Amino acid sequence: MSPQLGQQARPGGALRGGPAAALLPRVRAALNPAQLVALTILLVCVPSGNQDVTAAVHVTPADVGSLVLVAVTLPFALWRRTRFLSPTTALLLGGVLLAVAMATAASQDPHESLSGFVRFVQIFVIVPAAVACAVRDRRDLRLVLTAFAAAALVEGAVGVEQYLTGTGASYAGGDSRAVGTFGAQDVMAMSVVVSFGLLASLGLSLEARRERRRRAVAGWALAAGALVLPLALSFSRGSWIATAVAVTLTLALADIRLLLRGGVILAAAAVVALGGLTAAGVVGNGNGGDASVTARLSSIGSVTGEADQSVTDRYDLWTTAGRIWREHPLTGVGPKEFPAFRDAHAPLRLSSGSDTAGAGAGFSREPLLSPHNMYMLVLSEQGLVGITAFGALVLGTLIGARRTPVVVGLLIWQLVDFLYGDIGGTTTVLVSVVVGLCASAVARGGLPAIPGPRSEPILAEATR
Fold first, then answer.
1. CB burial string 42-63: b at 16+ within 10 A, e below
2. How much is the pLDDT for 265?
3. What are the residues whose beta carbons fall under 8 Å from the beta carbon of 419, sequence distance 6 or more?
4. Which of 49, 134, 199, 342 could form a disulfide with 33 if both were Cys (CB 3.0 to 4.6 A apart)?
């Protein structure tokens, strides 16, 4: 039996003898690990109920799915000595592991930082490695992108229904903010899922266009367009900005002419969307949806003076993280230690927390436990060592995956969103999937058929 695409046989061309050696190939043939990646994405939509954000560990159904993926995928890859990571990517993942280990060892409270160490390694090392091993060719990638789109359509439908019936999270005096199945305590989660689904639908549409499958082009383009509405109703300014940047870059990498033509279509779609929101505000919950979206859009430029409290708190949290880092420049204060050092370094005007209500939950005030900026979080908790390793990982995989525009678009979305947020919440495991897709594209020389520049040949070999 010849090795599968992207696999290398043991020296001698066969596995060692024994019942386990005979069973593993059959299990591997019967179960496509990419299905477990898709399942992990879909499990994000499973409601996990209201959780205590101050708890040391949160285990969601998606986390369980990711652990099953690791348990099924990595042992088989190690047994077959599969080369599923490029040497460069393996070095980058190892650098992240070493950096967070150093920060944990140097932490003011190593016991408290241990759970942060485990979480960081899960999200940025172990699960991405499993995803890179599981996604071996363009069919696997198509399956994963379809799962992103399916999850987004489900969450988007729930979010639109919440807006129309006034059963969403509290916003501007009413319960109109679309949060999907995630509840008021995780108001950003739906916008993350919908954004990824929109980009995945766009990528699948571009692939179908490349293959001249007109019905698939129209279907996936319609799915991407439909997701614009729930994204708007999420009132998430960071997700809007990240999606606009990612869509632009994806289209530019795939076909610059399509980007220029699509600009006109997108402008027209925006006008239609605002008109639809106007109608929804009249016949739905009466909260004036168009005014809310317009006000939210205009507030993006309010960086001084007129900035709302949430924006001011973010600036203060960034300042706090910078002050913490200056006192612990090399390895930071340790994972999960930002809350312990926050009050001693925060400006006096920083709020004690953010208010949440609606979507089936009562009023609560959630503490500000992170800087709401991933780069500042890593800098303050892991210092220069950590931010260097983290930056090398994301930039290295980003450059290496440039032949696969839709994957690059997903990572660009995450990198832009990290300017306004950090890891935490139900959708955190999706970060692992995105990083893993980039690592898979790097290891296999890119998967340009999903989709790639027309001048690029489709690579036949997965590894070199």
1. bbbbeebebeebeeeeeebbbb
2. 63
3. 238, 373, 374, 375
4. 134
Region 34-48: mean pLDDT is 92
Residues 95-114 as b/e (b if ≥16 CB within 10 A, e otherwise) read bbbebbbbbbebbeeeebbb
Binning pLDDT at 50, 70 and 90, where does residue 448 land? very low
Query: What's the whole-number mean pLDDT along residues 40-61?
Result: 75
Select from 187, 205, 232, 100 the least CA-distant residue to 142.
205
Distance separating the N- and C-terminal Cα atoms of the chain: 20
Of the candidates 434, 432, 438, the one whose C-alpha atom is nearest the C-alpha of residue 398 is 438
Residue-wise burial string across 184-203, b where 16 or more C-beta atoms lie within 10 A, e elsewhere: bbbbbbbbbbbbbbbbbbbb
Distance of CA 41 to the CA centre of its chain: 10
Mean pLDDT (whole number) for 276-302: 52
Residues 44, 63: Cα–Cα separation, whole Å: 9
Distance of CA 131 to the CA centre of its chain: 14
**pTM of the predicted model as reported, rounded to 2 decimal places:** 0.83
- What pLDDT is attached to residue 449? 46
Rounded mean pLDDT of 196-202?
95
Q: Is residue 125 a contact partner of residue 97, using CB atoms and an 8 Å limit?
A: yes
Contacts with 255 (C-beta within 8 Å, 6 or more apart), sequence order:
206, 453, 454
pLDDT at site 53: 52
Amino acid at 176: S
CB 177, CB 169: distance < 8 Å: yes
Q: How far is CA 230 from CA 143, 183, 223, 224, 227, in A?
A: 23, 15, 12, 11, 6
* Per-residue pLDDT band at 302 (split at 50, 70, 90): low
Q: Position of tokens 């027309």?
A: 454
Pair 253, 402: CB distance under 8 Å? yes
Neighbours of 353 (CB within 10 A): 14
- Among 20-34, 305-319, 420-434, the minimum mean pLDDT is found in 20-34
Mean pLDDT lowest for which of 302-311, 314-323, 426-435?
302-311
3-state helix, strand, coil in the chain (%, to 5): 65, 5, 30
